[in-house]
Amino acid sequence: MFDRELSWLSFDRRVLELAEDDTVPLLERVRFLSIVSSNLDEFFEIRVAGIMQQEESASHPATREFLLEVLEGVRRLVEAEQACWQDRLLPALETAGIRFRSRPQLDEEALRELSPRFDRDILPALTPLAIDPSHPFPVLTNKGLYLLVLLRDPETGELRHAVVPVPRALPRVLAYGTEHARYHTLLSHVIQSFIDRLFPGLELRGSWAFRITRNSDLYVDEEEAGNLLEAIEDEIRNLRKGAPVRLEIEASAPDDELAWLLKSIGLKTENAYRVAGPVNMMRVGSLVDIVARPDLLYPTFIPTLPAECADPSRLYERIARQDVLLHHPYESFGPVVDFIRQAAKDESVVAIKLTLYRTSGDSPVVEALKDAARNGKQVTALVELRARFDELNNIEWARQLEEAGAHVVYGITGLKTHCKACLVVRKEKAGLRRYAHLGTGNYNPRTARIYTDFSLLTADEEITAEVGLLFNVLTGNLGRSKFRHLLVAPFELSRRIIDLIDSEASAAKAGRKSGVFAKVNSLVDPEVIEALHRASRAGVKVELLVRGVCCLRPGVPGLSENIRVRSVLGRFLEHSRVFRFENSGGEPVILLGSADWMQRNFVRRIECVFPVRDKSLRRRIEQEILGTYAERLGDAQELRIDGTYAPCVPEGRRGRCAQDAFLSLASRHDSEPVSAPRRKARGRSARRRR
């Protein structure tokens, strides 16, 4: 198996290749470069932090050697990232008329213009922090940008240090010049150009931008916590004091200043990264919004609205007749929002239940739930307080929902609620009837514009009954309930997935038709990998689409020679989880869901994988979705036995791409366009990111 951390770095390297690719629109390349930086931040906050903790506890003698291997892999990636900015993107931006200037390139004319702006708009927000015996080294915010300043007292000759925080509230990229000669530079460059004004009477000997990354994993003992919400709030406040795991600093910083800074924050030299360009490359992504150049972005895309969903007032009537499948972002997320909004005002609706893992800052879903509660509906919201990096947002949503009269619960102790489900109960002539939405992505209309996901709207009695059971498990802590149609973690998802894989191996041994297809974000779980090995040895053809981390090594003789692993990266973030099993020569089983094939998804999360039972929808997935991924390989790379990736077709992205095909396919369907979305960058706010 490949190592998880090194596979993560390989994924980030493939994202960087999008920034290097001149077939990608120029400002989109800048955006991809910022995503690389955001991904690396999370990598250090969680993965590297965990390795360093293992090293400190001496839990494994090889940990030290592995940590150095990971840090060296990061160093190579950072060097490639900076080279992409300096050697590829900056010249291309200049050619396109977008002029970006570093601090040494700010000439006298630029400084004359920027000087009054600094005094008026920047200087009042700056707070220099002296460091001396009476002012110890301050606690610096995780990922905050700072300037290390070296000063000299002209009277005594004494050298002094100070730290200046770069205010997060100010824009990190500034424009200056005339309409016909517009230039851009970093806020930190402007501050450094005039930083001597903060220290009158002292000589400026140098200033260097730097940032610290800290361990950001939450550690909450749920068994001991009297109030989970308050315990998580307290832990988030403590994260600013988390152990430092990385220092990034301008390459021009002298060795003795770097050594002094490392000693002050308690890091080793191996954890320091000198960068030749912007210290926080993620902030460069703001250039995309500052520069009004739609010609340098992907063509405007408007998601389509299936005709059967065009009238929100008749949506439930449509679902009652037949299941509805939506392929986001090619098809609008609007019907999912309408599903909840209509329930909020429908007098026939008596109850709404929904899981909330991540959502947008102006969430129409939450607003609809609040309206429903105010309208007298029984509203139950399963709010996951431990959604990484969205904890504070979810705490705020939980409080707002409670104030509106909704029942807010936080799931089962020790388990994250990651499934995406909504259940609506309506009072109809024949009695109470359930309607459900099941999805592969979050209830977030913003990320639904840039993440590929599926939504299933159904009134199938057997499926909706089990969705009702799922919510009862979550709210009533019912233990190991049995599900027939849904595959639910941590109860049985892993076992049933392995059983499905093994059934394909049995079919192949018996000479029957067999095959496995899986599309996931990550493949890490060793038991599933072993099952795939068994299937491969039995002769089963296994096709895997793994966007990010993949620990399975394909093509190993006698072990995995029948397994092919591909990764699709492009304009949209591939986020959907899709599974197809030939089912021992019978009718194929097609499943969608929220779970990756990782131990955390199988053991430490509430996940829901659900079947597509409608024959017409299964046919659509087979032909339009899986067929397109198999035939359109321009945006796909194949994982090789040595851990490297290679384009699946010689022409690479210049060839036919799956995502382009989905865009064309959506426009040909019997549908109508909805309002154009405002495209957002895929940084951690979208990780998250994930």
Q: What can you see in these coordinates?
A:
Strands 15, 19, 20, 21, 22, 24, 25, 26, 27 and 28 form a ten-stranded mixed beta sheet that branches. Strands 11, 12, 13, 14, 16, 17, 18 and 23 form an eight-stranded mixed beta sheet that branches. This protein has 690 residues and is an alpha/beta fold. Mean pLDDT is 91; it is low at 675-690. α2 (26-57) runs antiparallel to α3 (63-95), α11 runs parallel beside α12 (391-404) and α14 packs parallel to α15. The protein folds into three domains: 4-296, Polyphosphate kinase middle domain (polyphosphate kinase like), CATH 3.30.1840.10; 304-476, Endonuclease Chain A (Endonuclease, Chain A, 2-Layer Sandwich), CATH 3.30.870; 487-656, Endonuclease, Chain A (2-Layer Sandwich).
Pick out its properties.
690 residues, eight-stranded mixed sheet, 3 domains, disordered C terminus, ten-stranded mixed sheet
